[in-house]
Amino acid sequence: MKMIIAIIQPHRLDYVKAELYKADVNLMTVSEVLGHGRQKGITEIYRGVKESGNLLRKIKLEIAVNDDFVEPTIRAIIAGARSDGEEEIGAGKIFVLPMTECVRIRTGERGNCAIG
């Protein structure tokens, strides 16, 4: 079991979700977050509004998957997060973390079957 955390551009969320659904990955948590990478607050225009400063709007996806779904999930996130297949600075990052346990609260199931 792995926890996949992806930080992406807000305007790419619908594309990433569509790619995840194609890969049969349907369970995710989505949060609006602030942060920056190497660009260190370079001014951006997002939906016609100029943004500058150290922290930029980002979307954080958290997806718990069984081991068989790790690579398909990563490929789906990359496919959806890239702008028309181009390598764009600030497109995001993907982190893959080991997950030692998962418990479904409703049934008490544990492990792989509790993920979904």
Descriptors:
116 residues, single chain, four-stranded antiparallel β-sheet, Alpha-Beta Plaits, two-stranded antiparallel sheet, alpha+beta
Question: What does this 3D model show about the protein?
Answer:
It is a single chain. 16% of the residues are buried. The chain is built from 3 helices and 6 strands, in the order βαββββαβα. The mean pLDDT is 88. It has 116 residues and is an alpha+beta fold. Strands 2-5-1-6 form a 4-stranded antiparallel β-sheet, with helices on one face. The chain has a single domain (2-37, 56-115), classed as Alpha-Beta Plaits, CATH 3.30.70.120.
**SSE pattern:** EHEEEEHEH
Largest sheet: 4 strands, antiparallel
Rg measurement, Å? 16 Å
Number of domains: 1
CATH topology: Alpha-Beta Plaits
Topology record:
Blueprint: E1 2-8, H1 13-22, E2 29-35, E3 44-46, E4 49-51, E5 56-65, H2 70-81, E6 92-98, H3 112-115
Antiparallel strand pairs: 1-5, 1-6, 2-5, 3-4
Helix pairs in contact: 1-2
Short description:
The protein contains 3 helices and 6 strands, in the order βαββββαβα. By secondary structure, the chain is of the alpha+beta class.
